[in-house]
Fold each of these.
Amino acid sequence: MKRLLLVGGGHTHVEVLRRFGRAPVPGVELVLVSPHRLTPYSGMLPGLVAGTYEHAAVHIDLERVTRFARSRFLQTLVAGIDPQRRVATLADGGSLEFDLVSLDVGSAPATAGVPGAAEHAVGVKPVDRFLQAWDGWCERVRNGALRRLLVVGGGAGGVETILAMHERLARETGRPDAVACALATDVDRLLPMHPARAQDLVGRALARRGIEVHLGMPAARVEPGAMIAADGSRLAADAIVWTTGAAAPPWLRQLGVALDPAGFVAVNECLQSISNERVFAAGDCATMVGHPRPRAGVYAVRQGPPLAANLRAALEGRPLARYVPQARALSIISTADGRAVAVRGDWAAEGAWVWRWKDWIDRRFIRRYAAL
């Protein structure tokens, strides 16, 4: 009996499990290891923060998916992997031998290099920690103990997060100015990877809500109650959210496989480690050599089918198939007011119809796994 070990319950692995459940490979045991039974869908997290969705509506039940795949689910952490010996060590003291291992463990907050950021700011990942902090902040707002909120990072994640927070707090307090919301970024424009039209639409959405935007303000350090910028200016805040991009989980450096310069697993066009044929990786924790793409949920979702096909081929001793991700992907940024901004290449559009489109796409994705 061969064993395929899936480490992490991200967007790519849930599709791998669904496809193996629909067409099992004889003589192969699947094991999924994840510290959480419920895995969040990133596309709906802003809606959860804003209060548009309930918790259950944006999470996939990994136990349900693994049952469908006739596989085992171990709710624990992987403490280490030895690809040469083909053994994974678990946080509970156990170990698992494997024939193939696939990693879909996401990323970590990019707080390195900014003193105090890890201690005094909360990253949007890991999601469970962020949501726990958010619930506590909402309670403090209701008690009048939190009046200033700061998001650091001017990408799509930072914009969606501050708009969603503002919407939820305005609705709960009945006052759009109950909490002073601000966003700070180290570059001179919002959404630097998006076209000018999208930047303008998002800037207008922030202005409509009275959210302060501080451009060209790189963080030098974070201390209790404030972010200190490189020019010495101080942005006071009772709570700080860190959305400045993704960092590689530190434990990947102990894997003994090739990594890119930032510490992410380097994979080829088959989503296979460039240095060990028994290791695969996808989602935010991996970098496709020669085809770098943003670490966004849309790319992780698209990697599900090719990863499933190549894992199946490797288990059956067949040649693997190349997969080249699309150069441009549709991005939809929720503005948390019943509207959204759609972006693809140089095209951008805004409206309530965009939000309805996004909501339909996201709910369809969740239903795919809830119906198993």
Amino acid sequence: MKKELLLGFCPIGKFVFSHEDALRYKRILEGKLAEWNVDFVGIDEAVTDGIVRSQKDVGPVVDHLRSRKVDALFIPHCNFGTEGAAGVIARDLGVPTLLWGPRDEAPQADGTRLRDTLCGLFATSKVLHKLDVPFSYIENCRVEDQAFKTGVDRFLRAANVVKTLKRLRIGQIGQRIDFFWTTIVNESELLERFGVEVQPFDMVEVIEAILSEARTNRGTIVDEIEAAKSHMIFEGFDSIDPIVNIYAARNVLLRLAESEDLDVLAVQSFMSIIKALDCQVEYSTAMVTDMGIPVACETDIHGAVSAAMLNAASKGQDPIAFADLTVRHPENDNAVLVWHGAFPESLKHPDVQPKVGTHWIQGVPPGAPHWEMKRGPLTVFRFDGDRGVYTAIGGEGKAIDGPKTQNTYVWMEVADWPEWERKFIYGPYIHHVAACYGNYSDVMREACRFIPGLDYEELP
């Protein structure tokens, strides 16, 4: 993952309620953010006591947070809330904004109250609507409540997705495969509307770099292969040379990602690179993905966007599996085969013997991984669009037992597969999806609130 998200911490108060109590909650919240290892910057250098209390505080706070280049904004209401200031600060910074305030205690013995936080939240939400500022909201709860911790985590992950998309750089290795019309995209529109940059690399130059790497670092690579044989079966290779090329391809792709500041790769998986290297590169891309750079096969640019966004939501906790939704389970009406040729080895089922061999549906040289993935919750996500209309779709399921097949795969059960099927058929989606272990559909939904021109469909 690139630089950690920086959160702007902007406590809001109001002069008519207890300033001392607002300061108390400011300190409590600073402690919680530090406890959760959130990278944040406050506004103590901009306004008195580090709490916004009037409209005149807007300029100094915006200038300060802008100078620190915050990626997201948290505006906790610490006693009520100066709603106009909160709204303008959020509007002028233009970053994902989180609205929340602590649940009010019972009135004091004489009937007076130190805070009317919920009332202030209602006021600020109206101003945010009036100023057309998208925002996230956590229910009015106590700092110790799980809802608060869960809500902050969800917001930070969503903001990380937004940050990633805004400066997303995709390394395109080779052109679109000629007969894959499903992967035709509008590169100019992706740049203009979402800030997505596609950096193309000439396939001939990449192949030459791989062959050079195989020659130059052959000894080191051979040692790595011999060590890998302690747990990995290499099958169908006539010699070690194609396996060396597989590892050399991994090294070259990783170097490209580092030198060109790439977030994700989209690789033309066949056929010229296979013929030139006498191997498939699926295991190469599986290793690259396992090392933190997601790879979309078949030069699927929208698929690469999908993988990068979901990877940002998970913060790289588990690598992305770039998958096909392939066939329905022969017995379970709500299950489907999540399959392809390059799922990372770290995701494999612990009882499975990993193997790199020949792809079962192509008469091509070996180089494709073969293993079933582990059990656990799964999130599936796809960014796509046609004719200037872009949408994202996401849903959750769980990995289950199913018939054995080849290449890398897992059977996934969802709540209502026929509805999933209809959603993908009616589009504008294709069968390629980014899949990740964990529950992130609520994060993706939240992220899309902050991405103009991107609607979100949630799968049941």
Amino acid sequence: MTPDQVALSAVIVAFAAVVQTVTGFGFALMAVPLLSLVIPTETAVVLSASLGLLSSSGQAYTERRHGDRPTIKRMLLGAAVGAPFGLLLLIVTTERQLRIVLVVVIAVFLLINVRNINLRRPSRVVDLVAGAVSGALNTVLSTNGPPLVMALHVRHLTPQVFRGTLTAVLAGSGVITVALFALSGRYERDIVVLFLVSLPGLAAGFALGVRHRHRVSAARFRQLVIALLAATGVVALVGLLVA
């Protein structure tokens, strides 16, 4: 691991933390594609999941009064079922295959949201399925946001309820994922070094996002979510083409 790789990784983490704090998700969506241009994808996945747990937990605490508890419980139940399957995929797939999965996940989510589907009422089946897919994606790509965001975004929730519900699920799912990574021996020396070096940037990004997120209106919030996914899809596609 070179000093340049460490420095660039820390900057990417800080940027991803700002995005996470403003939108309630997006840490891994931004971090994994960008980090994978600097460090191996598998290393980026484990690092992003570990730092994302801290970021999501901090935001879940600050937004704890706004979360929809029944939805949170259903999604976490699904995540607990899906996470082990994602770990299996991480073990058996190649780096290029991981990049392809990432691009496909982002593209599917964008397609659904561009169609502007609107589900005003919560669905138990949708919550459970979204949670299960999210849990699998979290261990294979550290990118568990898309299915959760899809299930919540189409309900046209307020930004506060959206962030409160989503970050609680991301934090709970993150605990499961990090535990599986630890049990499977994924925390090698390079990952530990990158994790420690990135902590100041994570804290700075979180503080900056909290300070400015109130300036984002509900309408702009929805536009930001879609624009964020489009940008990360482009980054992921570039990473796939140059790999």
Amino acid sequence: MAHLLQALKDEMVLRCDYITLPDTLYIGGGTPSLYRAEELGGLIEEAKKVWGCEFKEITVELNPEDVTHLYCRALADYGVNRLSVGIQSFFDEHLRFMNRRHNAAQGIKAIEAARNVGFQNISIDLIFGFPGLTVDQWRQNIEYALQWEPEHLSAYQLGIEPGTPFYKRYQEGLLQPVAQEEAADQYALMQGLLQTAGLIQYEVSNFARERYGSQHNSAYWQGACYLGVGPSAHSFNGVARHANVRSLWRYLKGITEGRLAVSEERITPRKRYNEFVMTRLRTVKGFSRKELEKQNCSKNLQRHFEQASARLFQQGLLTEQDGYIAIVPSKLFIMDRIVMELML
């Protein structure tokens, strides 16, 4: 693990010119809390040194079983000002089903530790739409989370993706996906409860109190350039997307030799249009027609958008307010279907 930490620092140096003066730093996409706080602090200090800046938002993803008061205190001392805690559920039977290492009591203790240290920007992750989750349990999960008055809450439907243990169980006939109607009802229940509690939905899976939306993730959805370091990390420089090799061995070997094992995908006008529509319609705000025009779309792409969006407006799936086109909030659960109608 020490070799990987050093490689991450070395990659920052190798790619320091990829972006300039980043505003945010996000340590996640895996299990960063397996590292000691001092080790994560070393990454933060290296990033500050490489880019010569102070980050407005520094987020660390935490697994509840790794969290202690001292751990949170140390992270705060290194400048971390936002924590994303992977609670997933407050029911032990759900956590066992999802093969999580923590239990409900550890989830609660993790939030308590973060609050007691003084963190004022805590995000809680929950999962819905999986077999065995009842409406009452989902309501209780949300209400339990709200007891801690989180500044931010993210909720995702459990996916049965190829290559995962869930997919293997599905293929063996041991797991049946939840009906989409049932998952949609759970999603709608969540929207209502969180709105009542004062958390504003700003993206299909994300809710926050005013001024507490994730600055880092919001930048993705607005098409900003970003750099990702580490195996499988993705980056975007405005012209092309770059993906680091998945193999840890190949990644470490490349960094040791002072080169990067990276693949490149150039962004064609068609891809730019598709990505623009897909990412912007994830957000509740959506996008304006002027913003779409700035993507330098061809007349064919613009014509396709006008024709496809007209059908979606007629079906009550899209709305346009104050010059911004967005998915009707009650239809965000079927965002993928709506976006596919607009993509080419």
